[in-house]
Amino acid sequence: MRSSRGEIMIEEILQESGLNFEEEYIFPGLNSSNGRPLRFDFAVFDDDGNIDFLIEY
Predict the structure, then answer these.
(1) Which of 32, 41, 34 is nearest to 9 (CA)?
(2) Can you give the residue ranges of every domain in the chain?
(3) Which of 16, 25, 37, 53 is most buried when burial is the number of CB atoms within 10 A of its CB?
(4) Taking the CB of residue 43, how many other CB atoms lie within 10 A of it?
């Protein structure tokens, strides 16, 4: 999927900060009204591998 300039900047900041993150994060079973999965731009994880916070740009 194509990234906007803002998403690219956020990715660079997360990488430079050494944070564990995943792009286009999907929660199983969380779908839009038409049945398509909802995606968050970034999910950032804590040291235990749990989601710390989500970023939607």
Answers:
(1) 41
(2) 5-55
(3) 25
(4) 19
